[in-house]
Amino acid sequence: MFRVAPLKVPQVGWNNLQRDDSPLFAGVPEGAYVYSVHSYRADAGPHTIATMDYGGSYSAALHRGNFYGVQFHPEKSADAGEQILRNFLSL
To answer: CATH code at 73?
Structure first.
């Protein structure tokens, strides 16, 4: 019998970002890699502006009013993370 190993928790490593056209992601290519270290995640919902997939799709970034939040670590996410931080500072 073939068994699939369960996904490791916490999720540690690089993952593709599927983003919308939010100003937070200006200049960040679709599918850019970002770095994650987390044990919890939020389901995608009406305020989701980006998703990632690790055993299912979940919110990678949220926006509501003047609040932005990301599930990944932009400071560890190379060029994509640097661009996201620059965009955040210019909002």
So the answer is: 3.40.50.880
Euclidean distance between CA atoms 66 and 14, whole angstroms? 27
Q: Which amino acid is at 50?
A: A
Taking the model in full, what pTM does it have? 0.90
Number of domains in the chain: 1
As a whole number of angstroms, the distance between CA 13 and CA 63 comes to 24
Give the structural domain span for 17: 11-85
Residue 81 lies in a domain: yes
Give me the pLDDT at residue 4, please: 64
- Residue written as token pair 């997939």: 53
Q: Which of 20-46 are b and which e, b meaning 16 or more Cβ less than 10 Å from the residue's Cβ?
A: eebebbeebeeebbbbbeeeebeebee
- What tokens does 16 get? 């593709």
pLDDT, tens digit (0-9, with 9 covering 90-100), for 48-83? 999 999 989 999 999 999 999 999 999 999 999 999
